[in-house]
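Hi all, long-time lurker, first post. I run a small reading group and we've been trying to get comfortable going from sequence to structure in the token notation. Rather than ask abstract questions, I figured I'd post a concrete chain and ask someone more experienced to write out its structure so we can walk through it together at our next meeting. Sequence below, copied exactly:
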Amino acid sequence: MANVAHRLAGVPNVPSWLGQGDDFQEQINAALNSRAHKERWKYTNPTPVLELLPLPTSVPDLGALPDQVTATNVSAETVNLPMSPTLDTAPEAYAAFCYQHRVDVLTVDGTPTTPLTIEHGARSGPMVLRLLANARLDLREVFTSDSDQQLHNLWVELGPGSQLLHSRNSFSQTTHWQFLHVVLAKDAHYQLHNHSTGARMRRQDIQVVCAAPGARAEITSASRVAEGRHHDQQITLEHTAANTVSQQTVRTIAEDRAKVTFNGRIHIHAQCNGADAQLSNRNLITGKNAKVNTKPELEIYTDDVKCAHGATIGQLDADHLFYFASRGIDEAQARELLGQAFLNSCVAGPLESEARAVLQAADHA
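-- Answer (accepted) --
Happy to help. Here is the structure in token form:
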């Protein structure tokens, strides 16, 4: 893949806020073929994602909007993303706006008493979610389609003192790319409960920016990748302000011939004293010929910080299996129970019941 040139099809509408001038096509193609981008896509072929971008999209089902949540459909020219665009960090996500004339923007002002549920079909255009100062929201994303090609792109802006509880269940079995970008203002709090299975190709790009003092981000993720399936998670936590906190806890089970990739990057910028960032990634191989690639990264430019990261890849303990056998439990059932226990610490949130039903099913896809 290193020698393959990746290119986007012609981009018909380049919003002026991208600020790339007349040579946008050349710049985005350069970003797609940069060394950093190729490293991020080292274990997944980006071509299927690039081919999805120009295809028609549909509007997700929002149901009845909770009180204090408003939805508007604005020109892609005026969407005004919550962070200055940097093509190098996510060229596919920024390019998605070039194929859209309109963008859905959800605004939360207050504390709705009911959750906001977004049911995505096969492909939706980029969506922007904004929580104003001191707003609180329970957001639930469900991906209902099992079509051959899926693409979803969500940008979140958390105002000062706001809180977002975000739950996602991603269980489709086909090609699926998800991009999530979250920016936290002063004293904002973000929680993500992410549950997923493997698929023909599943790629989850998650970028979180703690951009002001007091910002706190917590991510828990539980995944089970069945026989011959693919799962690639790329999580980046940016600390661009002092006294910010992040925590990532990620658990994945890889079965026969599964292909699993995890890249967790913590980036603490200069003059961000008091930043506290923790990352734990554990992978359990329960089948033959599974491949697991895990790469935790720390990039720190400030001395006064607390950071820790760890990653493990292992198999079930023979002593544990023997213990079950001594109690009359056969090996297959013992393996299933131990696998469930392994994931349990990361299965939580409002969509927990649905997630357990899939992740703990012995005949999961």
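A couple of things your group might point at:
The CA atoms of residues 169 and 195 lie 5 Å apart.
The first strand starts at residue 69 and ends at 75.
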